[in-house]
Amino acid sequence: MNGSNVDIDWESARHANKENWEDRVPVHAEAYGLDAFDDPEHLSDVVRDDLASLMPFLPPAGLSGLDLCHLQCHIGTDTVSLARAGATVTGVDFSPAALRTAREFAARLGIEATWVETDVLDARAAVAGDFDVVYTSIGTVTWLDDLDRWAAQIVALLRPGGTFFIRDGHPALYALDEEAPALTTRYSYFATGHAQQWDDDSTYAGDGRIAHARTYEWPHALSEILGALLRAGLRLVHFDEGRTLPWRFSERMVEVPGGYAWPVHERDLLPCTYTIVARRD
Ligand SMILES: C[S@@+](CC[C@H](N)C(=O)[O-])C[C@H]1O[C@@H](n2cnc3c(N)ncnc32)[C@H](O)[C@@H]1O
Predict the structure, then answer these.
(1) Is the Cβ atom of 215 under 6 angstroms away from ligand 1?
(2) What's the mean pLDDT in 165-192?
(3) What span, in angstroms and rounded, lies between the C-alpha atoms of 169 and 189?
(4) Is the pLDDT of residue 90 over 90?
(5) Rounded to whole angstroms, how far apart are CA atoms 92 and 76?
(6) Among 58, 203, 212, 246, who pairs with 19 as Cys (CB 3.0-4.6 Å)?
(7) What is the reported pTM?
(8) How much is the average pLDDT of 75-99?
(9) Tell me, what's the pLDDT at 258?
Protein backbone atom coordinates (compact mmCIF):
# COMPACT_ATOMS: atom_id res chain seq x y z
CA MET A 1 0.00 0.00 0.00
CA ASN A 2 1.29 3.49 -0.81
CA GLY A 3 2.96 5.17 2.17
CA SER A 4 3.35 1.95 4.15
CA ASN A 5 6.38 1.64 6.43
CA VAL A 6 9.12 -0.64 5.12
CA ASP A 7 12.56 -1.72 6.27
CA ILE A 8 15.09 -0.68 3.66
CA ASP A 9 18.69 0.45 3.99
CA TRP A 10 19.64 4.01 2.97
CA GLU A 11 21.77 2.95 -0.04
CA SER A 12 18.98 0.84 -1.60
CA ALA A 13 16.36 3.52 -0.95
CA ARG A 14 18.61 6.24 -2.27
CA HIS A 15 19.34 4.20 -5.42
CA ALA A 16 15.61 3.79 -6.11
CA ASN A 17 14.98 7.49 -5.48
CA LYS A 18 17.80 8.51 -7.79
CA GLU A 19 16.43 6.39 -10.65
CA ASN A 20 13.02 7.96 -10.08
CA TRP A 21 14.44 11.52 -10.12
CA GLU A 22 16.44 10.77 -13.24
CA ASP A 23 13.20 9.79 -14.99
CA ARG A 24 11.40 12.94 -13.87
CA VAL A 25 13.94 15.31 -15.43
CA PRO A 26 12.76 15.23 -19.09
CA VAL A 27 9.14 15.50 -17.93
CA HIS A 28 9.92 18.51 -15.73
CA ALA A 29 12.13 20.13 -18.38
CA GLU A 30 8.98 20.24 -20.55
CA ALA A 31 6.56 21.22 -17.78
CA TYR A 32 8.51 23.77 -15.66
CA GLY A 33 8.08 26.60 -18.21
CA LEU A 34 11.78 27.15 -18.90
CA ASP A 35 11.01 29.51 -21.80
CA ALA A 36 9.62 32.08 -19.35
CA PHE A 37 13.22 32.61 -18.18
CA ASP A 38 14.11 34.08 -21.59
CA ASP A 39 12.79 37.28 -20.00
CA PRO A 40 15.89 38.37 -18.04
CA GLU A 41 13.68 39.75 -15.25
CA HIS A 42 11.88 36.42 -14.71
CA LEU A 43 12.32 34.60 -11.38
CA SER A 44 10.68 31.35 -10.30
CA ASP A 45 7.59 31.87 -8.11
CA VAL A 46 9.30 29.88 -5.34
CA VAL A 47 12.35 32.15 -5.25
CA ARG A 48 10.24 35.29 -5.58
CA ASP A 49 8.32 34.24 -2.44
CA ASP A 50 11.43 33.04 -0.60
CA LEU A 51 13.36 36.26 -1.23
CA ALA A 52 10.63 38.18 0.59
CA SER A 53 11.29 36.05 3.71
CA LEU A 54 15.06 35.99 3.32
CA MET A 55 15.78 39.67 2.56
CA PRO A 56 15.42 40.97 6.15
CA PHE A 57 18.30 38.66 7.14
CA LEU A 58 20.65 39.67 4.33
CA PRO A 59 22.91 42.72 4.01
CA PRO A 60 21.26 45.84 2.46
CA ALA A 61 22.36 44.74 -1.05
CA GLY A 62 20.48 41.46 -0.64
CA LEU A 63 22.07 38.49 -2.41
CA SER A 64 24.35 40.72 -4.52
CA GLY A 65 27.94 39.64 -4.09
CA LEU A 66 27.07 36.69 -1.85
CA ASP A 67 28.15 33.09 -2.43
CA LEU A 68 25.12 30.81 -2.28
CA CYS A 69 24.91 27.02 -2.25
CA HIS A 70 21.57 25.58 -3.39
CA LEU A 71 21.01 22.05 -2.06
CA GLN A 72 18.73 19.71 -4.08
CA CYS A 73 18.69 22.20 -6.96
CA HIS A 74 16.93 19.89 -9.46
CA ILE A 75 16.91 21.37 -13.02
CA GLY A 76 18.13 24.75 -11.83
CA THR A 77 15.12 27.05 -12.18
CA ASP A 78 15.43 28.28 -8.60
CA THR A 79 19.25 28.34 -8.78
CA VAL A 80 19.13 30.54 -11.88
CA SER A 81 16.60 32.79 -10.14
CA LEU A 82 18.92 33.14 -7.14
CA ALA A 83 21.74 34.07 -9.55
CA ARG A 84 19.48 36.68 -11.13
CA ALA A 85 18.88 38.07 -7.64
CA GLY A 86 22.64 38.68 -7.44
CA ALA A 87 24.18 35.58 -5.86
CA THR A 88 27.16 33.61 -7.14
CA VAL A 89 25.52 30.19 -7.18
CA THR A 90 26.51 26.56 -6.72
CA GLY A 91 23.75 24.01 -7.38
CA VAL A 92 23.98 20.58 -5.73
CA ASP A 93 21.97 17.49 -6.64
CA PHE A 94 22.49 13.72 -6.90
CA SER A 95 20.82 13.45 -10.32
CA PRO A 96 23.20 13.69 -13.30
CA ALA A 97 20.25 14.30 -15.65
CA ALA A 98 18.99 17.17 -13.50
CA LEU A 99 22.44 18.78 -13.43
CA ARG A 100 22.90 18.32 -17.19
CA THR A 101 19.59 20.08 -17.79
CA ALA A 102 20.44 22.80 -15.24
CA ARG A 103 23.87 23.39 -16.82
CA GLU A 104 22.44 23.70 -20.35
CA PHE A 105 19.57 25.89 -19.12
CA ALA A 106 21.87 28.32 -17.28
CA ALA A 107 24.36 28.42 -20.17
CA ARG A 108 21.54 29.23 -22.64
CA LEU A 109 20.60 32.18 -20.41
CA GLY A 110 24.22 33.30 -20.02
CA ILE A 111 24.15 32.67 -16.27
CA GLU A 112 27.33 31.50 -14.57
CA ALA A 113 26.86 28.71 -12.06
CA THR A 114 28.78 25.79 -10.60
CA TRP A 115 26.99 22.43 -10.56
CA VAL A 116 28.03 19.62 -8.21
CA GLU A 117 26.79 16.04 -8.41
CA THR A 118 26.68 14.58 -4.93
CA ASP A 119 24.38 13.18 -2.35
CA VAL A 120 23.28 16.11 -0.21
CA LEU A 121 24.35 14.13 2.87
CA ASP A 122 27.94 14.22 1.51
CA ALA A 123 27.79 17.80 0.24
CA ARG A 124 30.56 19.28 2.40
CA ALA A 125 33.18 16.90 1.03
CA ALA A 126 32.04 17.36 -2.58
CA VAL A 127 31.56 21.12 -2.82
CA ALA A 128 34.52 23.52 -2.98
CA GLY A 129 34.51 26.69 -0.88
CA ASP A 130 32.38 28.24 1.84
CA PHE A 131 29.11 30.10 1.48
CA ASP A 132 27.29 33.15 2.82
CA VAL A 133 23.94 31.46 2.18
CA VAL A 134 22.84 27.83 2.01
CA TYR A 135 19.38 27.56 0.46
CA THR A 136 17.03 24.61 -0.06
CA SER A 137 13.31 24.53 -0.74
CA ILE A 138 10.16 22.60 -1.67
CA GLY A 139 10.83 18.88 -1.84
CA THR A 140 13.90 18.43 0.36
CA VAL A 141 14.17 16.57 3.70
CA THR A 142 11.54 13.90 3.05
CA TRP A 143 14.11 12.37 0.65
CA LEU A 144 16.67 12.06 3.46
CA ASP A 145 16.81 9.60 6.34
CA ASP A 146 19.36 11.31 8.61
CA LEU A 147 18.72 14.97 9.43
CA ASP A 148 21.65 15.31 11.84
CA ARG A 149 23.96 14.41 8.96
CA TRP A 150 22.05 16.85 6.71
CA ALA A 151 22.37 19.70 9.23
CA ALA A 152 26.09 18.97 9.70
CA GLN A 153 26.63 19.51 5.94
CA ILE A 154 24.82 22.85 6.08
CA VAL A 155 26.81 24.18 9.02
CA ALA A 156 30.09 23.05 7.45
CA LEU A 157 29.20 24.76 4.14
CA LEU A 158 28.38 28.10 5.82
CA ARG A 159 30.90 30.77 6.68
CA PRO A 160 30.67 32.20 10.20
CA GLY A 161 27.83 34.73 10.03
CA GLY A 162 26.27 32.82 7.12
CA THR A 163 22.54 32.19 6.71
CA PHE A 164 20.57 29.00 6.10
CA PHE A 165 17.11 29.14 4.47
CA ILE A 166 14.54 26.41 3.99
CA ARG A 167 10.86 26.49 2.98
CA ASP A 168 9.11 23.20 2.47
CA GLY A 169 5.90 21.24 2.82
CA HIS A 170 4.82 21.12 6.46
CA PRO A 171 5.14 17.72 8.19
CA ALA A 172 1.54 18.16 9.42
CA LEU A 173 0.45 18.39 5.77
CA TYR A 174 2.34 15.21 4.91
CA ALA A 175 0.44 13.35 7.64
CA LEU A 176 -2.83 13.95 5.77
CA ASP A 177 -4.63 11.60 3.41
CA GLU A 178 -4.34 13.39 0.07
CA GLU A 179 -7.28 11.37 -1.32
CA ALA A 180 -9.76 11.84 1.55
CA PRO A 181 -12.86 14.02 1.06
CA ALA A 182 -12.01 16.00 4.23
CA LEU A 183 -8.86 16.73 6.25
CA THR A 184 -7.99 13.31 7.67
CA THR A 185 -4.69 12.03 9.03
CA ARG A 186 -3.30 8.86 7.43
CA TYR A 187 0.52 8.87 7.63
CA SER A 188 3.00 9.30 10.48
CA TYR A 189 3.81 12.83 11.56
CA PHE A 190 6.79 11.62 13.59
CA ALA A 191 9.76 9.62 12.32
CA THR A 192 9.11 5.91 12.75
CA GLY A 193 12.57 4.49 12.05
CA HIS A 194 11.18 3.22 8.73
CA ALA A 195 10.92 4.61 5.22
CA GLN A 196 7.54 5.09 3.56
CA GLN A 197 7.30 3.26 0.22
CA TRP A 198 5.41 4.84 -2.69
CA ASP A 199 4.55 3.51 -6.14
CA ASP A 200 3.52 6.27 -8.51
CA ASP A 201 4.40 6.57 -12.19
CA SER A 202 3.31 10.22 -12.34
CA THR A 203 4.99 13.38 -11.09
CA TYR A 204 3.83 16.75 -9.79
CA ALA A 205 4.54 18.63 -13.04
CA GLY A 206 3.65 17.41 -16.54
CA ASP A 207 1.86 14.35 -17.83
CA GLY A 208 4.84 12.12 -18.69
CA ARG A 209 5.12 8.63 -17.14
CA ILE A 210 7.99 7.70 -14.81
CA ALA A 211 9.56 4.31 -15.57
CA HIS A 212 11.06 3.84 -12.08
CA ALA A 213 7.87 4.45 -10.13
CA ARG A 214 8.96 3.29 -6.65
CA THR A 215 10.32 5.84 -4.16
CA TYR A 216 11.11 5.98 -0.44
CA GLU A 217 10.58 8.97 1.81
CA TRP A 218 11.02 9.60 5.52
CA PRO A 219 8.59 11.51 7.73
CA HIS A 220 10.28 14.15 9.90
CA ALA A 221 8.43 16.10 12.56
CA LEU A 222 9.01 19.84 12.67
CA SER A 223 10.76 19.35 16.03
CA GLU A 224 13.14 16.90 14.36
CA ILE A 225 13.97 19.33 11.52
CA LEU A 226 14.46 22.29 13.84
CA GLY A 227 16.21 20.16 16.43
CA ALA A 228 18.76 18.90 13.89
CA LEU A 229 19.60 22.47 12.82
CA LEU A 230 19.89 23.70 16.43
CA ARG A 231 21.94 20.69 17.55
CA ALA A 232 24.32 21.33 14.63
CA GLY A 233 24.96 24.81 16.06
CA LEU A 234 22.70 27.08 14.00
CA ARG A 235 20.72 29.85 15.70
CA LEU A 236 17.07 30.28 14.72
CA VAL A 237 16.36 33.82 13.52
CA HIS A 238 13.02 33.38 11.73
CA PHE A 239 10.23 30.82 11.69
CA ASP A 240 6.95 30.98 9.82
CA GLU A 241 4.11 28.76 8.60
CA GLY A 242 2.13 29.29 5.39
CA ARG A 243 -1.31 28.50 3.96
CA THR A 244 -0.28 28.06 0.30
CA LEU A 245 1.82 25.49 -1.50
CA PRO A 246 3.56 25.75 -4.88
CA TRP A 247 2.19 22.33 -5.93
CA ARG A 248 -1.21 20.63 -5.67
CA PHE A 249 -0.88 18.20 -2.74
CA SER A 250 -4.48 17.06 -3.08
CA GLU A 251 -7.10 17.28 -5.83
CA ARG A 252 -9.25 19.14 -3.30
CA MET A 253 -6.81 22.04 -3.18
CA VAL A 254 -7.81 25.16 -5.11
CA GLU A 255 -5.65 27.53 -7.14
CA VAL A 256 -4.78 30.76 -5.31
CA PRO A 257 -2.18 33.50 -5.92
CA GLY A 258 1.18 31.86 -5.21
CA GLY A 259 0.01 28.27 -5.77
CA TYR A 260 -2.58 26.03 -4.13
CA ALA A 261 -4.47 26.03 -0.83
CA TRP A 262 -7.25 24.14 0.93
CA PRO A 263 -10.80 25.45 0.28
CA VAL A 264 -11.51 28.61 2.28
CA HIS A 265 -13.44 26.89 5.08
CA GLU A 266 -10.41 24.66 5.82
CA ARG A 267 -7.62 27.13 5.14
CA ASP A 268 -6.97 28.14 8.74
CA LEU A 269 -7.12 24.60 10.11
CA LEU A 270 -3.49 23.66 9.55
CA PRO A 271 -0.31 24.87 7.86
CA CYS A 272 0.85 23.86 4.37
CA THR A 273 4.46 25.05 4.61
CA TYR A 274 7.10 26.07 7.12
CA THR A 275 9.98 28.51 6.67
CA ILE A 276 13.16 28.53 8.74
CA VAL A 277 15.98 31.05 8.60
CA ALA A 278 18.94 30.19 10.82
CA ARG A 279 22.38 31.66 11.28
CA ARG A 280 25.85 30.26 11.86
CA ASP A 281 27.40 32.54 14.51
C1 LIG B 1 11.39 18.30 -5.53
S2 LIG B 1 13.01 18.52 -6.13
C3 LIG B 1 13.41 20.01 -5.30
C4 LIG B 1 13.74 21.02 -6.30
C5 LIG B 1 13.06 22.34 -6.40
N6 LIG B 1 12.09 22.60 -5.39
C7 LIG B 1 12.49 22.44 -7.79
O8 LIG B 1 11.28 22.26 -7.96
O9 LIG B 1 13.26 22.69 -8.71
C10 LIG B 1 13.95 17.35 -5.22
C11 LIG B 1 15.40 17.24 -5.72
O12 LIG B 1 16.13 16.54 -4.71
C13 LIG B 1 17.07 15.72 -5.35
N14 LIG B 1 17.47 14.71 -4.37
C15 LIG B 1 16.68 13.76 -3.77
N16 LIG B 1 17.41 13.05 -2.90
C17 LIG B 1 18.67 13.55 -2.92
C18 LIG B 1 19.87 13.24 -2.23
N19 LIG B 1 19.92 12.25 -1.34
N20 LIG B 1 20.98 13.97 -2.50
C21 LIG B 1 20.94 14.98 -3.42
N22 LIG B 1 19.84 15.31 -4.12
C23 LIG B 1 18.71 14.61 -3.86
C24 LIG B 1 16.36 15.19 -6.59
O25 LIG B 1 17.25 14.76 -7.58
C26 LIG B 1 15.55 16.44 -7.00
O27 LIG B 1 16.27 17.17 -7.96
Answers:
(1) no
(2) 97
(3) 12
(4) yes
(5) 9
(6) 212
(7) 0.98
(8) 98
(9) 86
Q: Is the CB of 262 under 6 A from ligand 1?
A: no
| Helix pair 96-109, 10-31: axis angle to 10 deg | 30
Residue 78 CB less than 6 A away from ligand 1:
yes
Contact predicate 279/164, CB 8 Å: yes
* Local structure of residue 204 (DSSP, 8 states): S
pLDDT tens readout for residues 216-239? 999 999 999 999 999 999 999 999
- Look up residue 257 and give its DSSP letter: T
Q: What pLDDT, on the 0 to 100 scale, is given for residue 8? A: 97
Ligand 1 centroid, distance to 243 Cα (angstroms) = 23
Instruction: Output the CA 61–ligand 1 centroid distance in Å.
Output: 29
| pLDDT above 90: residue 209 | yes
Q: What is the DSSP string of 19-71?
A: HHHHHHHHHHHHHS-GGGGGSTT---HHHHHHHHHHGGGS-TTTTTT-EEEEE
99: part of which helix (H) or strand (E)? helix 96-109
pLDDT at 1: 79
Count Cβ atoms below 10 Å from residue 271 Cβ, excluding itself. 17
Q: How far is the CA of 60 from the centre of ligand 1 (A)?
A: 30
Percent above pLDDT 90 for the chain: 99
- Three-state DSSP state, 216: strand
Yes or no: say if 274 and 243 are a contact pair by the CB < 8 Å rule. no
Distance 140 CA to ligand 1 centre (A): 6
Contact 272, 169 (CB under 8 A): yes
